[in-house]
Amino acid sequence: RIQACLRRIHRLSHSKPPERYKFGPFVLDLNLRSLSKGKKNLHLTTREYDLLCVLVAHPNQALERQDLAMRVMGRPLAENDRSLDVQVARLRKIIEEEPNQPRFLQTVWGSGYVFTPGK
Are 19 and 10 within 8 A, CB to CB? Predict the structure, then answer.
């Protein structure tokens, strides 16, 4: 029984995260480092791509601004630093039909952001 449990744990620890994420009309391909909508490739800066990868890897989970900043920029945000918010706004312009009423990248007031892939 112990050996069977150890095999299952070993198998789970070696499972890879998905290489492609689909949400709405978009496909985020981690191998190609690309985002496409239908057959059209969309241009993302390195920071926009990194931010989207972190958010997509944690669907429906609110991520705090400081946590996102550390994961994406590798540094904490200063008190009045809005650089992360600017990156989110730029990313919304690319993936949202109406950036002022986001479907995928929603703000969690007083905390951070949440990625909601929908159906």
Answer: no
pLDDT, tens digit, for every residue of 92-117?
Answer: 999 999 999 999 999 999 889 999 99
Residue for token digits 């945000």? Answer: 77
> Which token pair is 21?
């994420």
Query: CA quadruple 118, 15, 43, 72: dihedral positive or negative?
Result: positive
Copy the structure tokens of residue 4. Answer: 């069977």
Please compute the mean of the pLDDT values over residues 39-59 and round it to a whole number.
93
Instruction: Return the DSSP state at 75.
Output: S
Strand partners, 27: 22, 36
Q: How many CB atoms lie within 10 A of CB 1?
A: 5
Cβ neighbours of residue 56 closer than 8 Å, sequence gap 6 or more: 21, 23, 28, 115, 117
- For 91, other C-beta atoms within 10 Å of its C-beta total 24
